[in-house]
Amino acid sequence: MVIPENSSIVIFGASGDLTYRKLIPALYHLYASNQLPKSFAILGVSRTEYSDQSYRDKLKQSLLEMEQTEPEALDSFIQHLHYQAINTSDVQDYARLATRLDQLSDQYQFETRNTLFYLATPPSLYSVIPESLAAHGLNDESNGWKRLIVEKPFGYDLESAKELDESIHTHFQEHQIYRIDHYLGKETVQNLLVFRFSNAMFEPLWNRNYIEYIEITGAEHLGVEERGGYYDGSGAVRDMFQNHLLQVLAMVGMEPPAQINADSMRDEVAKVLQCLKPLDEHDLRNNLVLGQYTGSDVRGEFLQGYREEPGVAEDSRTETYVGLKAYINNWRWNGVPFYVRTGKRLPTRVTEVVIHFKRTPHPVFGLDAPENKLIIRIQPDEGIQMSFGLKEPGAGFKAKEVKMNFHYASLEETQMLTAYERLLHDALNGDATLFARTDAVEACWQYVQPILDFKQDPQALFGYACGTWGPKESDQLLERDGRAWRFPCKNLTDTDYCEL
Ligand code: BG6
């Protein structure tokens, strides 16, 4: 494990939810496992007034409530936290931030002024902050690196994503920009690459000659919770599909990178995303299903409909479900459907990829011989399941489906970093391999833009009851092709208990 160079970590949006729930816990765990720099300062920045001490108290309390902590490590970690209130919309006010960074640099005796800026703010500040940092020379790398982590959503549509990119590039160079997609930080998503390219028994089959179709599911049981205000302006296409699910699709579909480094990896990711078959009018009407959840009793509890959620408009037409049949127009994948779905208030939380292989050309052991299937479970119960046919014991030669499973939990060495731990650590080390590059982000927006335009169509939205697997139209998407979605449980292997 490479220990990052001494540095300051500046978190904009320091009093926000992401900072409390993800960033500070990730930094604490990195600290407790000796993976942060020898000397480092964390500076929280936002408009709210806190002293260093009151900010420390607040974060300590939330760490104690949310995480398993070790008292000594927690106390010494907390001492690295500092706070600076500024008006983040006012360029002039960043002078106070510059001064504070000078002071911290003296206090911690940094030899160079390495600084990681994390933008955990509302997107409206994504261009303002880089511009204001630059106005005070805080983008200047002559005495230490300056890096910028930008949270999603990176843009609102193709046009605004391009504008944002241009605006950030005016002040920061591409090598300084880290667009975070936390799905790329997940161990099991990275494993897609290792699994594919380190096993001679799978890679030769990984193409249109042997694969019939692929399912990618990103299901959530939770609704929009407290985030109705944000979500209503976003929807499932922007919130999950444009970024997380297309990144997973890229990992499943990409060619092997020449090397494992940021350039080679991201060249291949961008290439495969650029090969997505553009969605035309026919696709939008026939191969896309948008849905919105409606109130229903689920396992004895009434769950309210999306329109009743706080912060959501009463007549909202925002989609909380998207199902799509996508194609990748390249040599490897031409003609293989990728059925991709994501939604809130589905029966359970599960993200997985299912590879369905073609049946054998000579069905000598029965026409209904089991299909060969590989389930790559991204979360929860992370693991892999392979299904294949075996002779049913007894008379005759009938094939029967059997399964082989691997569960990450069974590894002795299971100290997996969470997505934010991995990505923060990589950014501190200057490794952008798992961050989205500008061309990939643009390719994703390019692909979803027709969906965003189509969303306006009044016929584009179907209802589904909370706790079901989305609108029935989504089932028809596969039924028309003589197929069906897999209905996964929270456990990878089938068990008696299933959420449905
Ligand atoms: C976030 C979305 O990016 O990802 C949320 O904004 C969603 O709406 C979350 O719930 C899902 O992430 P995970 O890691 O829980 O699958």
Automatic annotation (TrEMBL):
Signal peptide: none annotated. Its EC number is 1.1.1.49. PROSITE patterns: G6P_DEHYDROGENASE. It catalyses: D-glucose 6-phosphate + NADP(+) = 6-phospho-D-glucono-1,5-lactone + NADPH + H(+). Residues 10-191 form the Glucose-6-phosphate dehydrogenase NAD-binding domain. The active site is at H244. The keyword Oxidoreductase applies. Substrate binds at H182, K186, E220, D239, K344. One of its GO terms (molecular function) is glucose-6-phosphate dehydrogenase activity. Catalyzes the oxidation of glucose 6-phosphate to 6-phosphogluconolactone. HAMAP family: G6PD. This is Glucose-6-phosphate 1-dehydrogenase. It comes from Vibrio marisflavi CECT 7928.
